[in-house]
Design brief:
single chain, alpha/beta, TIM Barrel, five-stranded parallel β-sheet, three-stranded parallel β-sheet, 12 helices, 8 strands
Length: 278
C-alpha cells in the first residue's frame, strides 16, 4: 500500500468515530488457557492474546472509540464470576455484556440483576450453551430481556467449532422476532454465520439488527457489499469478533468497499451509539 494511501486511511479513522459491537476477552489469569482451548476447538489463529489490555491496544491502533465485550457463560455457575469481572472492566471504552446460562433455574432473576447493575445487555451462544434459539424454554428469558429493555447479542448461524446442526438459523430468528417484537436482538455475523443463503432470502430487508463480524472474509467483497446495501442501514453494526479478527484490517476492508457515507456513519458508530446509549 502506498504511503499516501496509508495516510488517507489513518486520517479517515481519526475523523470517523467507530464502535466495535462484537469483541471478546478474558481475565488475565484465564486468558492463556481459554485461548488455547478455543484455538484447539475451532482450529483458527487469533490476532490477540485474549486480554483486555491487548484489546485496548488494538482499539488504539485502529482508532476505535468503544468496544462491546461479549461474555459467554458455558455453565450456570459462571454467572457471578462473569458479572463481577464485567463490573471491574467496565469503562467508557469497554462496554461489557455479561452472560446468563439458559439452563440456570434462576435465569430470569439474573437477567433482572444484570439490568439492575446497569449493563446494556447480555450475550448468548446456542452452541456453547446448548439450546435452540426458538426453544419454548427461552420464552421467559426473552420476556425478561424485553421487560428490562436489555440488548441480546445472539450468536446466529452455524459455528466454526461445532457440527453444522441448525440451532440459530434464519427460520428460528424469524420465529423469535415475530413472537417477541420488542426484543432488542442483535444477530451476529451478518444474520448468521455460513447461513447466508437463508439470510438473503429471509432476513435481508427486515428490521433485524446484524453485526457484520466474520462474514466478509467468507462471502467475498462483492456479495458482502451487496448484502449490506440490501439491508436497512439503521440495522447494521460494525463488529470484528476480536481477537479472531484484526480490527484495523476490518476497518480498512470496509473502507475499500466504497459504500455510501451515510451507511458508513450508521454502520461504524451511530447505530451502536443509539443502541447502547453512550
Amino acid at each position: 500500500m502506498a504511503q499516501n494511501e496509508v495516510a488517507d486511511i489513518l486520517k479517515e479513522q481519526t475523523m470517523r468515530k467507530i464502535i466495535d459491537f462484537h469483541t471478546h476477552a478474558f481475565p488475565d489469569a484465564l486468558a492463556p488457557k481459554a485461548m488455547a482451548q478455543l484455538h484447539s476447538e475451532a482450529d483458527i489463529v487469533s490476532y490477540l492474546d485474549g486480554r483486555v489490555s491487548s484489546l485496548l491496544a488494538s482499539m488504539d491502533k485502529a482508532g476505535i472509540e468503544t468496544s462491546a465485550l461479549c461474555c459467554i457463560a458455558t455453565r450456570p455457575s459462571q454467572f457471578e464470576q462473569i458479572l463481577q469481572w464485567c463490573k471491574e472492566i467496565c469503562s467508557d471504552r469497554i462496554v461489557p455484556f455479561p452472560s446468563v446460562h439458559p439452563a440456570d433455574p434462576q435465569a430470569v432473576e439474573k437477567i433482572t440483576q444484570v439490568a439492575r447493575e446497569g449493563f446494556r445487555g447480555v450475550k448468548f451462544h446456542p452452541y456453547y450453551q446448548n439450546f435452540d434459539l426458538d426453544s419454548p424454554e427461552m420464552d421467559s428469558i426473552y420476556e425478561a430481556l424485553s421487560a428490562n429493555n436489555l440488548i441480546v447479542v445472539m450468536h446466529t448461524g452455524y459455528d466454526i467449532a461445532f457440527e453444522r446442526i441448525d440451532r440459530a438459523g434464519t427460520k428460528r430468528i424469524l420465529d423469535v422476532i415475530n413472537r417477541f417484537p420488542g426484543l432488542k436482538l442483535i444477530t451476529t455475523h451478518l444474520g448468521g454465520w455460513y447461513d447466508w443463503d437463508a439470510v438473503e432470502k429471509g432476513l435481508l430487508g427486515k428490521p433485524v439488527y446484524m453485526d457484520i463480524s466474520v462474514s466478509r472474509e467468507f462471502l467475498g467483497d462483492q456479495r458482502f457489499r451487496r448484502m449490506l446495501l440490501a439491508h436497512p442501514s439503521e440495522y447494521l453494526l460494525f463488529g470484528t469478533d476480536s481477537p479472531w479478527a484484526d480490527q484495523t484490517e476490518a476497518i480498512e476492508a470496509i473502507r475499500r468497499l466504497n459504500l455510501p457515507e451515510t451507511l458508513m456513519d450508521k454502520l461504524f458508530y451511530k447505530n451502536a451509539k443509539t443502541l447502547i446509549d453512550l
